[in-house]
Amino acid sequence: MTDTVPRPRDGEELGEPDPQDSLLLCAPLRIEARALRRGLRDLPYPPAVIRTGYGTTRAAQQAGSLSHRPFGQIMVMGLGAGLSTDLSPGDLVVGTEVGSVTCASAPILAGELRRAGLSAHTGRITTVDHLVRRAERAKLAADGWLLADMESGPLAAAAGGHPVAVIRAVSDTPHHPVAGIVSGGLAALRSLRAAAPVAQRWAAACGTRQVLLAGPRSFCAGVERAIEIVERVLERQGPPVYVRKQIVHNTRVVGDLESRGAIFVDELDQVPDGATVVFSAHGVSPAVREEAARRGLAVIDATCPLVSKVHAEARRFAADGYTVALIGHAGHEEVEGTLGEAPDSTILVQTAADVAAMRPRDDKRVAYLMQTTLSVDEAAEVSGALRERFPAMRAPGSDDICYATTNRQVAVRAVAAESDLVLVAGSKNSSNSVRLVETCERAGTPAHLIDGAEDIQLDWLAGVSTIGLTAGASAPPAVVEEIIAALSGLGEVSVSERVTTTESIRFGLPKEVRQ
Ligand code: SF4
Fold first, then answer.
1. Beta-sheet pairing, 164-172 with 92-98
2. Which atom of ligand 1 is nearest to the CA of 225?
3. What is the pLDDT of residues 393-426, one digit of tens each?
């Protein structure tokens, strides 16, 4: 594990942190405090580790005295009793709720611990005044608690509005009860020691912030329609429902539909004969439709109508004897589908160099089309190169880059201009989300693609006071809310929105799933 807290360079001195901004690291037991100090000993200015004492009474006394002490943040770290059979000794539990205190930054902290190579879970932590035995473990687990300890509740409550976090290392579990506490305790202390530098990074990321929301953001009409189609088929036919490829490129959406009975397959040979299959929003080539017909599969097509429009243009240009230059990214499902409409007449061009290498049948009969989710700027460069080489080139009837892609790029550019950092909610295989990151970077603002709050790296946030926030067209709006909630656990967050346009487009559903 690496420590990325800034260190003085040769000849440079780092000032002592102001106590008002400093982290108080609370460890109830001497053995826990020692593990933390060992984990922190290589840092230039390690935070104060306070031994707060064993049990609820000592914790409450210490909590009272903490209110007289200046601090910026409180983190409680120690061992605890795992209540779930999913936990193993040495696992870390990051509290989302600790007693009555909400620790909103838990997803960010847990993600950071996982990237540090530790096994970290998030969940509710309860504080009790005795060691928990077998029957009580089961009852607490049934009540929704993931871990029990004897001190965190009162100590967390002492934060009094300052950022607060609790990390407990599991020493015993239902499968490894207190009898095995020695070996479990050693594993837990090792994890605690390894987690200590992350506490310092968490504290460095804390601060009050402004979040600027880009508007529009998140789901487009094509994605809403595709998800609704799968939901309706699930409702009508019950699980399983087969979907060729990811219905939209987002891990949250796919995971949610999977949990409700959708089965995502790469190819039709994974779909049983006679079953119903949904085609994804990105579209398919005619070869896939023909195979589905040959197999007797019942097809429900969730292809976005704006992708279908590009397919129709490809067929029309090819029928008129044109060579079609398709501007897009090799391997993307949408591009595969469009290429399949007129494979002998279509050439994929990704760069100006590809344009120079094109060998059309007739220079005077060239047309171009675009993938719907390209960067507007990047696509303009390639289409400019095409027009220079083929001045008589025909263009699509209307822009192929869809309204949702264009609108989200314009909106994120506006927030990037005012932000120190932009977070883009979206999955790595989401073309339009990746383009949003590139748009910010082209505007000179660092940006990161994240599936959720757990992907936010604490180092990104140190010294950042204004965060731009958007979501790709396939990312659910709830992810944006989750990210804001998690950031608010690092300090007060004020949220405002920069709306560059509003959207009201809706697409009708295919007849198979209409009411
Ligand atoms: S991003 Fe555009 S093309 Fe893709 S599903 Fe949404 S509206 Fe349709």
1. antiparallel
2. 5
3. 999 988 899 999 999 999 999 999 999 999 999 9
Q: Which residues are designated catalytic? A: 334
pLDDT band at 248 (very low <50, low <70, confident <90, very high): very high
Q: Give the C-alpha separation, 99 to 362, whole Å.
A: 74
Q: Which of 280, 373, 507 to mutate to test the pocket of ligand 1 (most atoms within 8 A of CB)?
A: 373
For the stretch 271-311, pLDDT in tens is: 999 899 999 999 999 999 999 999 999 999 999 999 999 99
What is the per-residue pLDDT across 466-510, written as a single tens digit (0 to 9) for each?
A: 999 999 999 999 999 999 999 999 999 999 999 999 999 999 999
Q: Whose CA is nearest to atom 6 of ligand 1?
A: 222
Mean pLDDT of the chain: 93
Length of the chain: 515
Kindly give the distance from the C-alpha atom of residue 225 to the centroid of ligand 1, in angstroms, as a whole number. Answer: 10
Q: Which two tokens stand for residue 97?
A: 């709720």
Residue labelled with tokens 């599969």: 297
What lies within 8 Å, CB to CB, of 108 at 6+ separation is 202, 205, 453, 454, 456, 458, 486, 487, 489, 490
Distance (Å) of CA 156 to CA 253, 285, 431: 34, 57, 42
For a ligand 1 pocket test, name from 309, 398, 402, 433 the mutation site with the most ligand atoms within 8 angstroms of its C-beta.
402
Q: Residue 474: CB within 6 Å of ligand 1?
A: no
CA of 185 to the centre of ligand 1 (A): 52
Say yes or no: CB of residue 283 within 6 Å of ligand 1: no
- 3-state secondary structure (DSSP) of residue 25: strand
Tell me which H or E stretch contains 369: strand 366-370
For ligand 1, is residue 489 a contact (CB within 6 Å)?
A: no
- pTM equals 0.93
Q: What is the pLDDT, as a whole number, of residue 178?
A: 63
Burial 225-253 (b: 16+ CB within 10 A, else e): bbbebbbbbbeeeeeebbbbbbbbbbbbb
Q: What token pair was written down for 98? A: 């600790």
